[in-house]
Amino acid sequence: MLELLTHAAEAFIGVFNEGGKTFVGFVSGILPTLIVLLTAVYAIIELVGEQRIQGVARMASRNIILRYTLLPLLAVFFLTNPMAYTFGVFLKERYKPAFYDSAVSLVHPITGLFPHCNPGELFVWLGVATGITTLVNNGTAPFSVAKLALFYLLVGLLVNLLKGILTERITVFLARREGIVLEGNESDQPARATPASPGNALPIK
């Protein structure tokens, strides 16, 4: 019994020891990069100006392709997760659900190149990159980690575009079925007949 408790205690402490080693690896690896990236992004926002960035966001929201590729990319890059979703304020009501769907799907693919965008869930990318890094070090990987990160982002943007267009269509369909008039969707609503006023009614013979 005592030996069993000893092994259990060693296993329990071992988990935290491994966590400590991982943290030390982050301190000497990804954390400095993360801090520098965040500082650089905030500096860019201050230099360019929030109004200009918002102007680009408004421009991107007018085109269906840019709306679900460039706009989520700008939102996640500059505002990071979860503040990126506030870029939806530049969109009409019919586009907001689709934009959220696109933006929330991009917070993982973008971390390969820009880890500051979603540091809380960076472990998803690191789990994949660790295996590829091992293969690269052994000389058995057909591509580099940087190339993997780039393709990860490009595929993510393509998926975002498809999801955004599909979600937009579903939103319009459901709104029309429920009789809900969304901003930007007024032209899809059937015209309603205006009842004649009593003064204009034809006399009954």
Question: What are the secondary-structure elements, in order, as H or E?
Answer: HHHHHHHH
The largest sheet is: none
Radius of gyration: 26 Å
Number of helices: 8
Shape descriptor reads elongated
Structural class: mainly alpha
Q: Mean of the pLDDT scores?
A: 78
Strand-residue proportion: under 5%
Contiguous runs where pLDDT drops below 50 for at least 5 residues: 188-205
Provide structural commentary.
This protein is mostly helical. It has a domain of 137 residues. Helix content is 64%, strand content 0%. It is built from eight helices and no strands. The longest helix is centred in the last third of the chain and has 34 residues. It is elongated. The protein starts with a helix and ends in a 27-residue tail after the last helix. 21% of the residues are buried. The C terminus is likely disordered.
